[in-house]
Amino acid sequence: MDVTLHLAQDPEADELLGRSPLAALVGMLLDQQVPMEWAFKGPRTIADRLGADDLDAHDIAARDPEAFTALLSQKPAVHRYPGSMAKRIQQLCQYLVEHYDGDASAVWDGAPTGTELLRRLEELPGFGRQKAQIFLALLGKQLGVRPQGWREAAGAYGEARSFRSVADITGPESLVKVRAHKQEMKAAAKAAKAVKG
Question: What is the pTM of this model?
Fold first, then answer.
């Protein structure tokens, strides 16, 4: 895995995301309740604070939970909820150590079908169906991981030439389109709720 991603809109953070499977998974895990760029900058910030060039699942899984929470809480905090996210990142790393010997890319390497890959992603701590489908679409669209049926397994996020999620962001222009789509979805959901209420 060595591609150029543009999710953090920060060259150093994006470089790490493009070469580190674990950094990409952690960025996806952090991508909730904060701006996308903030979430995907998180893995680089964590690596820097650990004094490392990459994230290591064995190292993170074995760290003292309070010390790891303190690391994520340093200003600027890695996430709006650094405590709960520190716990989730450690749970993710512990799962990877237990099931994949700490190798995040083993989650998708050798997955024979998109359905199987989606199942593996959904088993990861902190990954529900939507997050798993978005990450599957990111793998297929930008990271060259394309088992048979990956687009179908990713649902609407797998559609070609769509601007629904982080899987579709390749630069500032596409970021604007994805943001616009998300705002439309929020407005539609709000309108539907008002009609029901």
Answer: 0.91
Long-range contacts of 176-181 (CB under 8 A, 24+ apart): none
d(C-alpha 155, C-alpha 45), whole Å: 31
* pLDDT tens by residue, 98-108: 999 999 999 99
Torsion sign, CA atoms 183, 120, 18, 86: positive
The C-alpha atoms of residue 86 and residue 77 are separated, in whole angstroms, by: 11
Helical (H) or strand (E) element with 48: helix 36-50
The pLDDT of residue 164? 86
As a whole number, mean pLDDT of residues 162-176 equals 87
Residue 17, phi-psi category: left (phi > 0), alpha (psi -120 to 50), beta (remainder): alpha
| pLDDT surpasses 90 at 129 | yes
Spell out the residues 6+ positions from residue 134 whose beta carbon is closer than 8 angstroms to its own.
Answer: 28, 154, 157, 165, 166, 167
Output the DSSP codes for 130-161: HHHHHHHHHHHHHS----BTHHHHTGGGG-TT
The pLDDT confidence band at residue 172, using thresholds 50, 70 and 90, is: confident
Question: CA-CA distance, 38 to 87, in Å (whole number)?
Answer: 18
Which class for 166: exposed (0-12), middle (13-18), buried (19 or more C-beta within 10 A)? buried
Angle between helices 11-19 and 21-30 (to 10 degrees): 120
The neighbour count for residue 99, using CB atoms within 10 Å, is 14
